[in-house]
Design brief:
Distance between the termini of chain B: 29 Å
Largest sheet of chain A: 7 strands, mixed
Helix content of chain A: 25-40%
CATH class of chain B: Alpha Beta
Order of helices and strands of chain B: EHEEHEE
Number of helices of chain A: 16
CATH superfamily of one domain in chain A: Succinate dehydrogenase/fumarate reductase flavoprotein, catalytic domain
CATH architecture of one domain in chain A: Alpha-Beta Complex
Shape of chain A: globular
Number of strands of chain A: 20
Largest sheet of chain B: 2 strands, antiparallel
CATH topology of chain B: Alpha-Beta Plaits
Strand content of chain B: 15-25%
Strand content of chain A: 15-25%
Structural class of chain B: alpha+beta
Oligomer: heterodimer
Radius of gyration of chain B: 14 Å
Largest interface: A-B, 48 and 34 residues
Distance between the termini of chain A: 65 Å
Number of helices of chain B: 2
Number of domains of chain B: 1
Radius of gyration of chain A: 23 Å
Chain lengths: ~575, ~70
């Protein structure tokens, strides 16, 4: 008999979204348990901080004549940007996120995260407050709007952990969830493996909230060639998606996604520096090799087309490489950017390393990694939820990964986390506790712990590498559908065959020398499950003709796909 | 390079507790890097070390490439 814990609401993943979900589920009277694969104090994409938070402020923005509709348009649709990215936004969810951001900020502030300051600067939005009151440091982030708060978010996760503990949320650190338990399709719990001890656990729950994060790291070859030199946590490996797929959940598949901002995503070699674009405001400029400014404030999305033109002109003229250059900025602007770097998890380390290497933003320019502008890369798979944060599987809610709700990661996680917590807690009150199926548990235990017993077999690394090789072909395949990409003649059925061969080859033949490696093995298996569904979507040519968006559903173990209608209600500001 | 544990380490093992990619383990008297190739270089260990006993260096292929603009 495996060790069993009972709870009302089980939250899988203790990052920003999972913590918000747990806190609000507890606020609504539920008994809550979090399964966290890392450690809750520093886990997830916000683990080592966040310095910018896109928000809608009902006290400030209406006075600027700016509505929630403008917010949604700003992050989803802007001419060329919208053509490549805006089409796959879930507008309803996006509006919910925008409307919920101020509540999230107020909550975080009440828990000790500093958002308001005595001093604000000329490059912050200037607005009036009653005498003696502190102000928000508001900066532009997207096209041109003053939409984003700069703040001290380095210890965000510590503050969230305190609130979870205060509400007696039971936290299992180093607990990697492996599968959802079901009874007649109803979610009745989940299983997990302790990454330090290898112990198999059973969690009985009335409802599960999936909060494992918005990515599938390690599915594709890493930009730097190293899986752990990554922007997103390299441990976000599609675990939640794979568990949900196996339980019959509808998913959102983006055949290709993530265009880069005018071609620059990060400093050369440092994939984790991607926050630089937003975080270097107002001091950093993007310049070409001659020092000519191509993009004045990378944080501000002046028309993307203009930025691309500047970049492309410099390439034609041979004025490469490109640099992030602070050296022309005023001292107080550089000091502000350094404050932001210190709060942004992606960037704090850079400041520390710079000290050791004798580098200074005041003197040195940093080479940028140039990626083909506007290229669609990789793929993306997430759970499909309704506005109640519920999936199609009874008892399975989700806040991250879910279908795309605009390019605002932390606000989406915070708002949908909060919302899913309330919805799931209410749902759990209507539910009886179900008896668990011992056979299902036993099968899951064998499936997820067998690599520990194998002395011969494949390591997680070699299986992961081969999966990357296969998925690189997929990447080239989808690139053929990008208007600016090169059409590549690769057979998608061939990719499917490779993937099936890999799965057959490694089934029950992976080995792990310890529980840590066991979890890595299970991560790779999850990535293969995610990859399989992506490829299945790609081999439906009649669906693929006009659209790159699919909604997948498993019926009788067969995926069924349909196109997602692209809905954009708001005209662009120019057209209006 | 993955974290380097300096001599002033007080063996509180906070870094072992919180490492996001689970690369650290309790050794005799100080933490040891058990899975060096899985370091995310996120700096969580440095941030949470109460006595600043952790130094994080970058492998050559992760170092920023820079140009001197001003002396």
């Amino acid at each position: 008999m495996s060790k069993t814990t009972s709870t009302d609401v089980l939250v899988i993943g203790g990052g920003l979204s999972g913590c918000m979900a747990a806190i609000n589920a507890a606020n609504h009277g539920a008994k809550v348990t979090i399964l966290e694969k890392s450690h809750i104090e520093r886990s997830g994409a916000a683990g080592t901080g966040n310095d910018h938070f896109w928000h809608w402020n009902p006290d400030i923005h209406p006075k600027l004549g700016w509505t929630i509709a403008d917010m949604v348009r700003d992050i989803s649709f802007d001419g060329e940007y919208g053509k490549t990215k805006g089409g796959y936004i879930d507008q309803e969810l996006c509006e919910i996120v925008a409307a919920g951001t101020m509540e999230a900020v107020n909550n975080l502030e009440s828990w000790g995260v500093q958002f308001k300051y005595d001093e604000i600067f000329p490059w912050n939005l200037q607005y009036e407050v009653p005498k003696g009151e502190k102000k928000y440091r508001i900066v532009p982030q997207f096209q041109s709007e003053w939409d984003t708060l700069n703040y001290d978010g380095r210890d965000l996760k510590k503050r969230l952990t305190e609130q979870c503990v205060k509400r007696r949320v039971k936290i299992f650190n180093r607990m990697a969830a492996t599968g959802l338990l079901t009874k007649d399709r109803q979610i009745v719990g989940a299983t997990g493996v302790d990454m330090r001890t290898g112990e198999f656990h059973v969690f009985k729950a009335k409802v599960v909230i999936m909060a494992t994060g918005m990515d599938q790291s390690r599915l594709f070859t890493a930009p730097s060639g190293n899986w752990f030199n990554a922007q997103s946590p390299p441990t976000i490996t599609g675990d939640g998606e794979a568990m949900a797929i196996r339980a019959g959940a509808e998913v959102f598949i983006l055949q290709a996604g993530k265009t880069t901002n005018a071609g620059f995503q990060y400093m050369k070699n440092l994939v984790r520096s991607s926050g630089a674009a937003t975080t270097c405001y107002p001091a950093g400029r993007y310049v070409n090799s001659e020092g000519e400014t191509m993009i004045k404030h990378p944080a501000v999305r002046e028309p993307l087309r203009k930025k691309r033109e500047n970049v492309e002109t410099s390439i034609r003229e041979g004025k490469t490489p490109f640099y992030l250059d602070f050296t022309d900025a005023k001292e107080e602007e550089i000091a502000y950017a350094e404050w932001s770097y210190g709060n942004e998890g992606l960037c704090w380390v850079i400041l520390e390393i710079m000290k050791d290497l004798g580098l200074d933003f005041r003197k040195d320019a940093f080479e940028l990694a140039l990626e083909p502008t506007g290229r669609l890369t990789d793929g993306f798979l997430a759970l499909w939820i309704n506005t109640e944060c519920s999936s199609n599987v009874p008892g399975l809610f989700a806040c991250s990964p879910v279908q795309f709700a605009g390019e605002v990661a932390a606000p989406t996680a915070a708002v949908l986390g909060w919302r899913s917590g309330e919805k799931a807690a209410k749902y759990s009150k209507e539910m009886e506790e179900h008896e668990l199926d011992e056979k299902q548990i036993e099968a899951e235990k064998i499936r997820t712990t067998s690599p520990l017993k194998n002395t011969d077999g494949f390591t997680w690394q070699e299986v992961n590498l081969e999966l990357n090789n296969i998925m690189e072909k997929y990447k080239r395949y989808v690139a053929g559908f990008n208007p600016s990409g090169i059409k590549d003649e690769i057979s998608v059925t061939g990719i499917k065959t490779c993937l099936e061969q890999l799965e057959k080859l490694v089934a029950s033949k992976m080995k792990a020398k310890d529980p840590h490696e066991l979890v890595r093995c299970n991560e790779v298996i999850n990535l293969i499950d995610v990859a399989k569904l992506m490829i299945r979507a790609a081999i439906e040519p009649e669906q693929y003709e006009n659209s790159i968006w699919f909604l997948g559903k498993i019926v009788d173990n067969k995926p069924i796909f349909r196109k997602i209608p692209i809905k954009i209600k708001y005209p662009s500001k120019e057209a209006a | 390079m993955p974290p380097i544990i300096k001599d002033n380490c007080i063996a509180c093992f906070k870094c072992v507790e919180i490492c996001p990619t689970d690369i650290l383990r309790e050794g005799e008297g100080k933490p040891v890097v058990a899975y060096p190739e899985e370091c995310w270089h996120c700096g969580a260990c440095m941030m949470d070390c109460p006595v600043s006993a952790i130094k994080l260096d970058l492998p050559l292929w992760m170092r920023p490439v820079t140009k001197k603009v001003k002396k």
